[in-house]
Amino acid sequence: MSEIARQTERLPGAGRARVFSGVKPTGHLTLGNYLGAMRRWAVTDQHRSEALFCVVDLHALTVEHDPARVRRLSRQAATLLLAVGLDPALCTVFVQSHVDEHARLAYLMECTAGVGEMRRMVQYKEEREREKGKGARGEEEWGGGRLSLLTYPALMAADILAYGTHEVPVGEDQAQHLELTRNLAERFNRRYGRVFVVPRATHPPVAARVMDLQEPTSKMGKSRQVGTAGIVYLLDEPETVRRKVLRAVTDGADGVVYDRGERPGVANLLEVLAACTGVADPAELAGSYGSYGALKKDAAEAVVELLRPVRERHAELAADPGYVAAVLREGAERARGMARPRVDAAYGAVGLMAAEGEERGEGEARW
Ligand code: TYM
Question: Class for domain 3-208+321-349, per CATH?
Fold first, then answer.
């Protein structure tokens, strides 16, 4: 076993399943965030593993942003993480920018990744188009948007790899980023000695990609700028939720059939209803509906009931900002302690000299 491998075996968390995931404060959190990711964090992940959940605020700076809004949305996202049931006694909840190791390791990931593979990221291409559409200043001034939008997946890989993460519970849209993270971990380990655990993505069985209710061929995304009638936000009033779901775009065909390709609007409603009511197979649900109206009504009520406790708990927590701040402070401290040894090991492995009195591995290669 190499020196680095020996050291990483001893790192905190080695031998126990570790989970890491995050949410980006670029908008109000949505039903897609909840069904695709957050609900599982609270219901299963925090109970069965050593789990960390993060408001990844540095990622919110990759597109044009308003500083006060990012701060507000970060606080709201952190409060919502607790409102959906994350328990600081069971897991670690924190804000990315409070832990320097993310940015420290991101640079090494940029030195591991290639420009070509970054350019191939679908989310980069989509966001870039969106920024262009908004006439974002970056596009005008520098021709191409923020550089950090391109390098974003290196920071995301760092978020995950810093903690020796085994599993990353995310929606389907993050699958490509996770594949890249795996490649970077393997490449780094091959070049410099085994420092990183190679993580895998996990997705929910249904509603891994909740679609926009008005445009069911596009993902329900919090950062969308054009119209919000198709997006259910976690903090929407019940009446607003009902209105949005009842007005969901379907199609003119007869009968309720589950077909994601041909009937995306109906399929989306069936998936949402299945996810809310714990039914594993949305196709099975289709059989119990004779009309779109009845399906929409049930889906609307199911979403209202699903979100009710989240809204109520959010209101309680928002009234106690001192508590949320204390949770985040402790979370960041714990996260720092977990990430630091591995990021130090990575710095040593690539050949960066330790400061006097510091201990770092030197990797397998010796010159
Ligand atoms: P973000 O903030 O866009 O979304 C947070 C989580 O919600 C999931 N999600 C969805 N799932 C189903 N249907 C949808 N319509 C939907 N919209 C969002 C996402 O898949 C995600 O799991 N790059 C990440 C943030 C990130 C991260 C990380 C995640 C940064 N570093 C490290 C995991 C690990 C993002 O933009 O998520």
Answer: alpha beta
